[in-house]
Amino acid sequence: MADLLPYYNARTECPVCDSNIEYTKVRSRAFKLVKQDSDFCPYYEGENPMLYEAVICPECGYASHITSFSSINKYEKARVREKISSKWTKRSFTGQRSIEKALEAFKLVLLNLYDMEAPKSEVAKICMRIAWLYRYKNDTTNERKFLEFALKNYIEAYGSEDLTEKGKIDEYTCLFIIGELCRRLERYEDCIKWFSRLIMSNADPQQKHRIPQRLVETARDLYQEVKDHLAGSKEESHET
């Protein structure tokens, strides 16, 4: 008997054009998470399931993260039909995905989100994944560009969205990611400010039970790393 492929096609209905479409999923036994970067970028042994998280309707061009593909309202559908479907050239995104194909798919998701005027937290989530894909390619220029986009949108989401809504990033993880993105983008003073907010929230008995302690511990470690870096930079400037 031939070995099963690590991926397979599933079917769903496009909520925009009502077409019955295929999309590709990775079998759960075909991958193993081996590590994560401090901004949650995952690395897998076997097939990388993240490459397949962007689902595209080949008929109308509607594109979404797999977790929210069916969650689209009437206004958003009208926007997709007007902005995307009217210019769409039918094409398939099924089958094994390269990083390049995944980038194309995620950028279509991002285009849909912009045209639907989607919440900033959703835009930020997709920008993060695009940045990670560029990280896999060692393309630091484009990685940084999309980390900047993610940071801008996460900050706007933190200030304007109800992050207690189901399916959204929670406010404490959002605080952590903002701090971590500031660190990666060498905005060290901003990094300290955002990590401090998270650490102070953890000191509040009414909030502490809602915050994953691993998140706080990592924030403390990175906070200290940044403080040490800034102190070292000041010493060097005094010596010169």
Structural class designation: alpha+beta
Describe the biggest sheet?
2 strands, antiparallel
State the oligomer.
Answer: single chain
Strands, total number: 6
In spatial order, strands of the major sheet run: 1-2
- SSE sequence, one letter per element: EEEEEEHHHHHHHH
Compute the separation of the termini in Å: 70 Å
Mean pLDDT: 94
Helix content: 40-55%
Outline: globular
% residues in beta strands: 5-15%
- By DSSP (H or I, 4+ residues per run), the number of helices equals 8
Sequence stretches where pLDDT stays below 50 over 5 or more residues: none
User: Could you tell me the radius of gyration in angstroms?
Assistant: 20 Å
Descriptors:
13% strand; 6 strands; 52% helix; globular; two-stranded antiparallel sheet; alpha+beta
Compile the SSE list and pairings.
Layout: E1 7-13, E2 20-26, E3 31-36, E4 42-46, E5 54-56, E6 63-65, H1 74-83, H2 99-116, H3 120-136, H4 140-160, H5 171-184, H6 188-202, H7 205-208, H8 213-239
Antiparallel strand pairs: 1-2, 3-4, 5-6
Helix pairs in contact: 2-3, 3-4, 4-5, 5-6, 5-8, 6-8
Report on the architecture of this protein.
The chain has 240 residues and is α+β, with helices and mostly antiparallel strands. It has a domain of 138 residues. It is 52% helix and 13% strand. The protein has eight helices and six strands, in the order ββββββαααααααα. A two-stranded antiparallel ribbon has the order 1-2. The chain has a two-stranded antiparallel ribbon with strand order 3-4. A two-stranded antiparallel sheet has the order 5-6. Strand 1 and strand 2 form a beta hairpin. Helix 4 runs antiparallel to helix 5 and helix 6 packs antiparallel against helix 8. The longest helix is centred in the last third of the chain and has 27 residues. The protein is globular and about 60 Å long. The termini are far apart. The mean pLDDT is 94.
